[in-house]
Q: What sequence folds into this?
């Protein structure tokens, strides 16, 4: 190979290398520019949302003074305003972290004392939830350099995560220690909650990833742990997680606390760590974990023996929303409640229900699975179900309706609108029952088919076909009917009671009499005894007694009127 060829090859190689480097640098610059643009957008949107929230908060404060009787409602408003504000602040901090705008500012002081005081600010909340909380610091005192603002958020996020995924009477422990060189603080937050499935661990700190990290856990925004990791890294520390499904989870954080671990621009010599600062900072954040007390204000009493009052089950894991819906609906209906699908099934098996309102995203068993189970169970497939969800995509709505939900309501919604939808379904059931109680005509039957939901329509159609096939058989009773319907006696009873308001024997008797009316209309010259035999009555006298009870007149009078 001569020198000219070698120079050409090297030149080509250099062009390729520089081209690849240039392309990589361009892609990196585009990525950085996009991140900065997204950070700018997030920052502006967050600030735009915080302004109206401030106005709402000020309005609530003014209402407290002008109309103090509704203090519980104001507490609920302020609690949820605080939650939205905290979420927006987390989004803002996440945005700053991504764009490199989040800065570290460390101060000197008693690190152990500050961490202990910070953690103990949340202890009253845990006690209120029936949880056992222990903080252990060894040594009890140790000087060091920390950014108190960042550390507050790290501790709060880890403890609130433990609270969220540890049930009542659970245990949360926070152990704080140092390494052998006394240049790091090691914080271990442990709980005896549900643990994290192994396949979810890789997404544990992924930003905005679906927050269902714990087995049968609740749903989150996917911000808290991702932001915690960013704050730990900003503090030049490390974070890791140890978990065992069904046994609990431990987060371990190591943070440097010596002055030489930080650059000069990160050190604030003028400020000393003050443990009392933790009280106000954490107290504000801890309010977002509060659960309001259930309202015990007496509501209008509904007499249980009134058959016109319907029983509704409301399933919702957010206690405030559950209580609001219950407060509204129990003025018109008997209202039972559950906080997830598993609890809902227990209630359904124990009570005779008319309708279910259920959230979609819930721990242990979500709304979609609840619908699937109920619609596959002959004993309960007749129950109307309204699903509530924060998912607004058309695909989600179609999925719910395909599963068998009768209606689909997206959050946020007006409670009055929800009640209207419930009333419409209940009124539809009333209309079907009324049509069954009216004089039976071909037009009525068609109205019932048009009014009833598809599942009810199919059930009624099958029931009518079974009775038509055995109409003249006087021995065809409720056991024979249940066998032909492919259902147990109790299942058939529940379905007929829900759809028509009648028990099995009453439905058979009613259908025989209504068919007798139709036969009389079609053939008015037939004798009463002939029609009685055709619709399954052995004794014309018993037929006459039953006919009068159902129709209010003797069959002879009814038939005579038709002949005129």
A:
């Amino acid at each position: 190979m001569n020198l000219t060829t070698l120079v050409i090859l090297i030149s080509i190689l250099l062009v390729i290398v520089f081209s690849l480097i240039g392309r990589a640098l361009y892609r990196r610059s585009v990525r950085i520019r996009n991140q900065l643009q997204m950070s700018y957008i997030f920052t502006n949107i967050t600030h735009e949302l915080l302004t109206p929230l401030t106005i709402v908060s000020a309005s609530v404060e003014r209402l407290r003074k002008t109309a103090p009787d509704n203090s519980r409602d104001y507490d609920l408003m302020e609690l949820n305003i605080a939650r939205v504000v905290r979420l927006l602040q987390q989004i803002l901090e996440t945005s700053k972290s991504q764009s490199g705008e989040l800065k570290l500012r460390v101060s000197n002081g008693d690190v152990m004392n500050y961490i202990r005081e910070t953690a103990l600010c949340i202890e009253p909340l845990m006690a209120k939830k029936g949880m056992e909380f222990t903080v252990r610091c060894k040594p009890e005192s140790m000087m060091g350099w920390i950014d108190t603002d960042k550390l507050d958020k790290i501790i709060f996020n880890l403890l609130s995560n433990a609270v969220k995924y540890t049930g009542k009477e659970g245990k949360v422990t926070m152990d704080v220690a140092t390494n052998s060189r006394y240049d790091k603080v090691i914080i271990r937050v442990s709980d005896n909650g549900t643990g994290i499935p192994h396949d979810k661990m890789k997404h544990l700190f992924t930003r905005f990833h679906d927050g269902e990290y714990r087995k049968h856990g609740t749903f989150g925004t996917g911000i808290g742990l991702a932001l915690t990791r960013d704050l730990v890294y900003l503090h030049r520390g490390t974070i890791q997680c140890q978990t065992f499904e069904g046994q609990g989870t431990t987060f371990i954080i190591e943070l440097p606390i010596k002055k030489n671990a930080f650059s000069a621009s990160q050190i604030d010599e003028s400020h000393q760590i003050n443990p009392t600062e933790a009280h106000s900072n954490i107290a504000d954040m801890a309010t977002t974990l509060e659960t309001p007390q259930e309202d015990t204000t007496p509501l209008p009493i509904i007499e249980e023996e009134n058959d016109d009052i319907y029983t509704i089950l409301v399933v919702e894991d957010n206690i405030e929303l559950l209580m609001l819906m219950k407060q509204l609906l129990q003025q018109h209906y008997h209202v039972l409640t559950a906080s997830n699908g598993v609890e809902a099934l227990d209630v359904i098996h124990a009570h005779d229900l008319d309708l279910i309102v259920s959230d979609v995203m819930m721990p242990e068993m979500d709304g979609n699975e609840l619908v699937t189970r109920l619609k596959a169970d002959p004993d309960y497939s007749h129950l109307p179900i309204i699903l509530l969800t924060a998912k607004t995509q058309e695909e989600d709505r179609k999925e719910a309706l395909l599963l068998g939900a009768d209606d689909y309501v997206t959050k946020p919604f007006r409670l009055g609108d929800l009640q209207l939808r419930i009333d419409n379904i209940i009124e539809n059931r009333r209309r079907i029952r009324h049509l069954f109680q009216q004089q039976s005509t071909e037009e009525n039957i068609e109205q019932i088919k048009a009014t009833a939901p598809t599942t009810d329509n199919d059930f009624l159609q099958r029931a009518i076909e079974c009775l038509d096939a055995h109409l003249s058989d006087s021995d065809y009773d409720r056991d024979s009917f249940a066998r032909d319907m492919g259902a147990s006696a109790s299942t058939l009873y529940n379905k007929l009671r829900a759809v028509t308001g009648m028990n099995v024997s009453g439905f058979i008797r009613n259908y025989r009499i209504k068919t007798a009316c139709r036969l009389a209309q079609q053939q008015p010259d037939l004798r009463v005894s002939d029609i009685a035999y055709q619709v399954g009555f052995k004794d014309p006298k018993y037929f006459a007694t039953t006919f009068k009870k159902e129709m209010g007149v003797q069959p002879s009078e009814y038939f005579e009127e038709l002949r005129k």
